[in-house]
């Protein structure tokens, strides 16, 4: 049958030429639009390194001199510290709160801020200003039970268990597994020293890789701690309250109660309650503002357009070919060929046509990928991709997108072929021969 189909395709090469050219163009186009979808989806599938369920950020605002609620007697650093400490106590003492943290404004996922630093493994590299690893920096105030690692659900890289915060937090830090591997080649580095500028920090623990943005990859991360807050007019920007609800808490009831009962209590001094935002809401907001959501929508729309073109092209082509070959189909039916046999023959023709076109376009796709690069999510220019993720390896990345494009294209082409061929194969042999 295969040899017969190849002869058939060659004999009808003029009729097949335009659909063949369309398959060439759309194969190339489809690969380019699936590439970003694959990368964004693969990045999103990477473990976050924390548990976002039940996590909220309590944002505090502050009145300035231009506001009628401003109280100059409460504007000193000492009074600001007293007022903010009271706010912290009110937040942490809510009965629904399981754990909490006083986090820096860049120190929770999908926040609007991002802080970077240079980390060295030894003093020799520090003095030469070379051999450092660029890392993201989180910080929190470890006072009154404030524990970022426990609140976020960050786990020990080796054991998968909870990470304990030491009683003495000064000159200590926690680092991510990726940062440990980059600095020392191993995650077993507890007790070793790392250097941030002139500050020597003892590694108190190593946690699993952590994603700051859902559609990005984990960046090397260091978490530092302070033993107390400092009074300042900038306290609402320096210190955010992050809380985790207890398991089984009714989220809707909690949010309603917080707005009605707790929010009015958070007007202390020149501070006031601004908002209560869920981590998932922050993620959605950032994806929208950064363009990730629109990027995905555009790529899905372009993919749908390409597939619609192929579907209509295959339906039209094989509708015409089926009608033109009704006599041939009638002869096949009269000689005992089943409907399924005829449909399979036409589907095999479509598959061969598509496969030949796709194979011919692969060299052009490879050149395009090599010359222009594969799609990557824009991160810090000092970011070093982790080769453990397939989307960061050229060969694997290119092959996966190629396979996805081929499979999607093949499914649409076969469906577009099956519809008219099935209709033609169902005609009675006498009717088909009479029309012939």
Q: Can you walk me through this structure?
A:
This protein has 436 residues and is an alpha+beta fold. The protein contains 14 helices and 10 strands. The chain has helices spanning 2-11, 13-45, 77-92, 123-128, 148-152, 177-184, 235-238, 251-262, 279-289, 292-324, 326-334, 339-372, 394-425, 429-435, and strands at 55-62, 97-103, 116-120, 133-141, 172-176, 193-196, 199-207, 221-226, 240-245, 271-278. A 6-stranded mixed beta barrel has the order 3-4-8-5-7-6. A hairpin with a 2-residue loop joins strand 6 (193-196) and strand 7 (199-207). Helix 2 packs antiparallel against helix 10 (292-324). The mean pLDDT is 85.
Using brief descriptors, characterize the structure shown.
single chain; 436 residues; alpha+beta; 14 helices
> How much helix is in the residues?
40-55%
Which sequence of strands runs across the widest sheet? 3-4-8-5-7-6
Mean residue pLDDT: 85
Our estimate of the beta-strand percent is 15-25%
Oligomer status: single chain
| Low-pLDDT regions | none
Could you give the order of the helices and strands?
Answer: HHEHEEHEHEHEEEHEHEHHHHHH
Distance between the termini: 24 Å
The strand count comes to 10
Secondary-structure class? alpha+beta
